[in-house]
Automatic annotation (TrEMBL):
PROSITE patterns hit by this protein: FERM_3
Residue stretches making up the FERM domain: 1-120
Name under which the protein is recorded: FERM domain-containing protein
Record-linked PANTHER family: RHEA, ISOFORM B (PTHR19981:SF1), TALIN (PTHR19981)
Coiled coil (residue ranges): none
InterPro entries linked: FERM_domain, I/LWEQ_dom_sf, IRS_PTB, PH-like_dom_sf, Talin1/2_VBS2, Talin_cent, Talin_cent_sf
C-alpha cells in the first residue's frame, strides 16, 4: 500500500535498492555439516560466499553466526567430502565442513579473490580517475554474476620531432641517423612512430587460481620426514661411489680372522637392516590401504623413519663388505645393487607423500621393486642357498594363487551384482568385491617385499596382517551377497569360490610357519628339568608352610621320575657303550637323590611343626636340583639347547642392530 501509484520503472528501482540492502544480497549458499564444539556430532549449517566475505548461518533462522572477510582467507582446499578454510592469524584454527560441493565453493571463492587482487593492483594505475584512453576490463563470477569493472593501462606513442637541416644526414625516428650520399638512389625513408599503440579493448589476462591443499599436523610431520630422507638419499648415493679405505691386511692368522669376523658381522648387520626396512615397507603398504581421511599418518611416519634410519647404516656396511671381498667384480656388483635399492626406497617415499596423490597401484609397484632390489643385495653378500630360493619362490607362487582364486571370486560377485534390482544394492556388492581385489593386490605386494627376509618375525607379522585383510574382505563380500542375492545357484558358486580363497590363504599361512625359525619343541627332558627348577624355588620360598612344601615335593618327585625314564630311554638307543653307561649312571644318581628327598618329605609330613625337618626337606630338594643339572647333560638336550641359543643369538643381534640404528638416528 505504501508504494501504490509508483511507476513501473520506479518500483523496479526501489525493489532493487531494498534487495541490495539485505545482508545476504549476492550470497551463494551451500548446505553443509559442521562438527559441534566439544561433541562428536555433525549439525547442518548454511555456508555463504559473496564478493566480500564468507558467512556461516543458522540453517533454520538464517541468522548470521560468523563472518570472515575474504581478505583474511590464506588457503582453502576441497576433497570429495570436505571443504576447509585457513584464515591465518584471523582465526586460531581451520574451519572445516562436510560437503560434496567443495569444488563449487572452491571455484567461487577463487574467483572473488582474483577480483579482489585485481582491484588492489588497479589502485596503482595513474589514469584511474578518468583517463579517456584507458581500457575497460570486466570479470564475472558464476553463479550469481558478480561483475567487476576497472580501467586498463594505456600509453599513446607520439612522433619524434627532429631537425633535418644538417646536410647529408636524414634522421628517421625509428632507426637513428643514416649517411646520405650522392650518385645513387637510396632506399625510401619513412618517418616512424615511437612508443606503444593504444589497444582499446584487449581481453584481460587469465589468472589461474592456485589452490594449496591444507595438511593436518600428522601429514605435515610425515611430509617433513620424507623430505628430510629424500635430501639425504643423494648423499648416500655419493657415499657409495667413494671407495672405503681399509687397512692393509697381512697373510697371518690374526689378519685373516679379523677379516672374516668383520665380514660376518657386517653381513649380519646388512641382513638385519634390510629385514627391518622390508618390514617397514610392508607396514607402509598396509597402513595406507584405507581411505585417505582414515590413514594413520603418525604410524606411517614411524615406518618411514625406520627406513630412513637404516639407509645410512646399510651404506656404511655395504662399503666395508665390498672393500673386503676377494672378488673385486662382486664388490662392484654389491655397490650397484645397493644403489638400486636406495633408489627403490626413494621412489617408494615419493608415492607416500600426502600431497602426491599417487594412484594406489604406483605405491604397490614401488614396494615390489623394493623387494626385488633387497633380494639382489642379499644374494650378492651371501652364498647362494638353494633351499631359501625355493622357499621364496614358493611364497610368491602361493601369493599369486591367492590372487587367482580371488579374481575368480570377484567374477562370481559381479554375476550376483548384475541380478540386483536397485543401483544401491548393486553398488554395495561391487564395492565389497573391489575391496577384495585391493586387499589381494596389497597381499601380493607385501609378499614380494618380505620374501627375501621372511625369516624376520617382523616381516612374518606384516605378511600375516595382509593375509588377515584378505580374509576379512572375503568374509564381508560373502555376507553382503547373502543379504542381497536371491539366486541360490549363484550364491553357491560364490561360496565355493570363497572357500577356494580361504584354502589358498591357509596354505600361505602354513608356508609362513614353515619358513619361520623352528622353535625347539619342549621334550620330556626339558619339561621335567623346568618343573624341577620351578618346584625347588617354590619349596624354598614356602619355608614355615609345611603343606605347601609337601605339595612341591610331590611335584619334584613326579618330575624326576619322568626325567629318569627319559634318560633311560635315550640310553637304550645309544650305540656307543660309553655314552650308554654314563646315561644310566646319571639316571641312578638322580634316582638316589630323589629317594633322599622323598624320605625327607615323609619325615616333614609326620612332624609338620618341626623346623629341623623343614630345613632338611629344603636341603634335599636343592641337592636334587644340583644333581639334575649334572644328570640332564644328555646329547639330545644339549642339541636342543644349542639350537635355542643360535635362534636367540640371531634375534638378539638383529634387535641390537636396530636399537643402535635408532639411537644413532635420534642422536643425529
Amino acid at each position: 500500500k505504501k508504494h501504490l501509484g509508483l511507476a513501473e520503472l520506479e518500483a523496479k528501482v526501489l525493489y532493487t535498492k531494498n534487495a541490495r540492502s539485505l545482508n545476504t544480497y549476492g550470497v551463494t549458499f551451500f548446505l553443509v555439516k559442521e562438527k559441534m564444539k566439544g561433541k562428536n556430532k555433525l549439525v547442518p549449517r548454511l555456508l555463504g560466499v559473496n564478493k566480500d566475505s564468507v558467512l556461516r548461518l543458522d540453517e533454520n533462522t538464517k541468522e548470521i553466526l560468523k563472518t570472515w572477510p575474504l581478505t583474511s582467507v590464506k588457503r582453502w582446499g576441497a576433497s570429495p567430502n570436505t571443504f576447509t578454510l585457513d584464515f591465518g592469524d584471523y582465526s586460531d584454527q581451520y574451519y572445516s565442513v562436510q560437503t560434496t560441493e567443495g569444488e563449487q565453493i572452491q571455484q567461487i571463492i577463487g574467483g572473488y579473490i582474483d577480483i579482489i587482487l585485481k582491484k588492489q593492483s588497479a589502485k596503482d594505475h595513474l589514469g584511474i580517475e578518468g583517463d579517456a584512453g584507458s581500457t575497460i576490463e570486466e570479470d564475472s563470477v558464476a553463479p550469481h554474476q558478480a561483475t567487476y569493472v576497472q580501467h586498463g593501462s594505456s600509453s599513446v606513442g607520439k612522433p619524434h620531432e627532429m631537425s633535418l637541416s644538417k646536410p647529408g644526414i636524414m634522421r628517421p625516428g625509428g632507426e637513428g641517423s643514416k649517411p646520405f650520399g650522392t650518385g645513387h638512389v637510396g632506399a625510401p625513408q619513412y618517418t616512424t612512430l615511437g612508443g606503444q599503440a593504444n589497444v582499446g579493448h584487449a581481453p584481460p589476462s587469465i589468472r589461474q587460481t592456485k589452490v594449496t591443499p591444507i595438511l593436518t599436523e600428522p601429514q605435515k610431520g610425515l611430509l617433513s620426514t620424507i623430505t628430510a630422507i629424500q635430501e639425504k638419499i643423494t648423499q648416500y648415493q655419493q657415499d657409495l661411489d667413494a671407495k672405503e679405505m681399509v687397512p692393509v691386511l697381512g697373510s697371518d692368522m690374526g689378519a685373516k680372522k679379523w677379516k672374516q669376523v668383520t665380514l660376518d658381522t657386517r653381513k649380519q648387520n646388512v641382513g638385519s637392516q634390510i629385514a627391518a626396512m622390508n618390514a617397514a615397507t610392508a607396514q607402509v603398504v598396509t597402513l595406507t590401504s584405507g581411505p585417505a581421511d582414515e590413514i594413520d599418518h603418525t604410524a606411517v611416519g614411524a615406518a618411514i623413519t625406520t627406513i630412513g634410519s637404516n639407509l645410512p647404516e646399510i651404506t656404511k656396511d655395504v662399503k666395508v663388505i665390498a672393500s673386503l671381498m676377494d672378488d673385486t667384480n662382486m664388490g662392484e656388483k654389491l655397490i650397484d645393487a645397493t644403489k638400486i635399492l636406495v633408489n627403490a626406497f626413494s621412489d617408494l617415499l615419493r608415492t607416500v607423500e600426502p600431497e602426491a596423490k599417487e594412484p594406489r597401484q604406483n605405491l604397490l609397484n614401488a614396494a615390489s621393486k623394493v623387494g626385488e632390489a633387497s633380494s639382489q643385495v642379499l644374494a650378492t653378500i651371501t652364498e647362494e642357498n638353494e633351499e631359501n630360493k625355493e622357499l621364496q619362490d614358493m611364497l610368491l607362487s602361493l601369493a599369486k594363487l591367492v590372487a587367482n582364486t580371488t579374481a575368480a571370486l570377484v567374477l562370481k560377485a559381479k554375476n550376483i551384482a548384475s541380478t540386483c534390482e536397485d543401483q544401491q544394492t548393486q553398488n554395495r556388492v561391487i564395492g565389497a568385491a573391489t575391496q577384495c581385489a585391493l586387499a589381494t593386490s596389497q597381499l601380493v605386494a607385501c609378499a614380494k617385499v618380505v620374501a627375501p627376509t621372511l625369516h624376520s618375525p617382523a616381516c612374518q607379522e606384516q605378511l600375516t596382517t595382509a593375509v588377515r585383510e584378505v580374509a576379512k574382505a572375503v568374509e564381508n563380500l560373502v555376507a553382503v551377497c547373502n543379504e542381497t542375492c536371491t539366486n541360490e545357484d549363484l550364491m553357491n558358486q560364490l561360496k565355493e569360490a570363497a572357500e577356494n580363497v580361504t584354502k589358498t590363504l591357509n596354505d600361505l599361512l602354513n608356508h609362513i610357519k614353515l619358513v619361520a625359525p623352528k622353535k625347539a619343541t619342549d621334550s620330556v627332558q626339558e619339561h621335567s628339568v623346568e618343573m624341577i627348577y620351578t618346584a625347588t624355588e617354590k619349596l624354598s620360598a614356602a619355608a614355615g608352610d609345611t603343606g605347601e612344601m609337601i605339595k612341591q615335593a610331590r611335584v619334584l618327585g613326579q618330575a624326576t621320575a619322568q626325567l629318569i625314564q627319559s634318560i633311560k630311554g635315550e640310553a637304550e638307543k645309544q650305540e656307543d657303550s660309553d655314552i650308554q653307561r654314563r646315561l644310566l649312571a646319571a639316571a641312578k644318581t638322580l634316582a638316589d637323590a630323589t629317594a633322599r628327598m622323598v624320605e625327607a618329605a615323609r619325615q616333614c609330613a609326620n612332624n609338620p611343626h618341626d623346623v629341623n625337618y623343614q630345613n632338611s626337606l629344603r636341603r634335599h630338594a636343592e641337592e636334587l636340583r644340583d644333581v639334575t643339572i649334572i644328570a640332564a647333560r644328555t646329547p639330545a638336550l644339549r642339541s636342543k639347547l644349542v639350537d635355542r641359543v643360535q635362534i636367540c643369538a640371531r634375534r638378539a643381534v638383529a634387535t641390537a642392530t636396530q636399537c643402535i640404528t635408532a639411537a644413532q638416528a635420534t642422536h643425529g
